[in-house]
Amino acid sequence: MSPDVWPQAVLDLLATGGDRPVFEDGDQIVTAAGMSALIRRTAAGFRAAGIGPGDGVALRLGVTAPAFAATIAAFAVGARVSGIRPDLTPAQLQDLLSRDDAVLVDDARLAGLAAAPDDGGPLVAGGRPQDIARITYTSGSTGGAKGCVQTYAAMTAAWAAYPDRWPPAIAELAPRLRRYLVFGSLSSQVMLEYGVLALAAGGTLVVARPPTFPEAIVTQRATASVITVGKLYQLVRDQRANPVDLSSLRALMVSGSPLHPGRLAEALDVLGPVVFHGYGQTETGMISMVTPAEMLASPAALASVGRPPAAVDVSVRDGELYVRTPGQASSYWGDPVESAEVFVDGWVRTRDLAALDAEGHLRLLGRARDVIIVNACLVYAGPIERVLATDPDVAEAYVVSRPDDGTGEAVHAYLVPVAGRSPDFDALRELVTARLGGAAAPRTMTLIDRVPIGAGGKPDKAALGPGSPHGAGGVHSS
């Protein structure tokens, strides 16, 4: 068992941090020493409950200091850790727990775990390198949750906790994370990675209260936060119409859908040189990032997602991007068929179309898979189409993605009705929400006479859209 296994670097950082503030929630400020003790107690609670290397722990927690401590403590005892997204439907939650065979830890159970005695001794990470450290669940192509599996070896190889491994873009970003705004779920892959980066850079995790933009930035004097594409658009509009004091802000890490160069330029103009445009996937972690300085200096950089760092290998094969990253996932939990399709000879198929220019900038050109990214949440078109088609008034259903100022991208549905029938749009939206979650609910629904057919004889969803000659009067749901 290696003393350097994840999350030993975080444990050591906190154990030696003394009175330095690392977590702030309103009037509650937790020092590094205080957080270290809380993690030790929680780890002792896990062990007393019989949880150790190889055991499953599913975290369904709020954004609190004990929740952060529980996340790190679960890794410290070598458990197989998964975070429960707050937007899962009851059916999706039950499916996830039944497949993972994990102990569910919510805020009530966490209180008991954290009450365990602290012996004050150093906490040594107990993970075994080849054991599964984390399962990160996303929407799946069949409608069920899909779990990306990372081993302890992979998480140990990642760069966030190790300043000497930071790629140039991360080295530029890290000092700006002095007051890193946290919200949603601290067991989220993106939130945790930037949180660990902030701690390694000497920063403090600050809870977003109120949990809204730009109010939380102003109230908490935040220097950095993750932001979705839709929220970035809204922030830019708000700053144009009713500007507030964002002088504390140093970095906004944009996640989710790719940004149009014109929108990126506008954000830099309105908000200043604070926008970092990153590209990555749950399966890979960060693949590349373009910094404000690079975008302001070069139109080519502005139209890209940056240069992949030396630690990331990229290969464009028949237009599709394959990558290898230090901390990438190795499989999908319980899904050997999908695993074999995506994880190929040590490479990850991104299912994104891409190109590298002469200067090494990575440009995204489209997707080879039928997905929509809604508020940074991956939603597959296929399951939505199948749910819509279960309605007796719907003969055929087709779902497409469209850019959206509110959510980055949004789901739009085109329905061929059964002859003489009129589908109830509100009922259909409720049905999709109940089965697949709110992110999958169509923003609009349009009745069409027939779907356009492409040259290969298959439905041509790219031809669907406003003004399509195949529409039946453009009947929309609002």
TrEMBL record:
Q: Which InterPro entries match?
A: AMP-bd_C (IPR025110), AMP-bd_C_sf (IPR045851), AMP-binding_CS (IPR020845), AMP-dep_synth/lig_dom (IPR000873), ANL_N_sf (IPR042099), ATP-dep_AMP-bd_enzyme (IPR050237)
Domain AMP-dependent synthetase/ligase span(s) in chain numbering: 18-333
Region annotated Disordered, chain positions: 458-478
Taxonomically, the superkingdom here is: Bacteria
Q: Where is the composition biased (Gly residues)?
A: 468-478
| Domain AMP-binding enzyme C-terminal positions | 384-458
Task: Fetch the Pfam families from UniProt.
Answer: AMP-binding (PF00501), AMP-binding_C (PF13193)
| Stated name of the protein | AMP-binding protein
List the source organism: Plantactinospora alkalitolerans
Lineage of producing organism: Bacteria, Bacillati, Actinomycetota, Actinomycetes, Micromonosporales
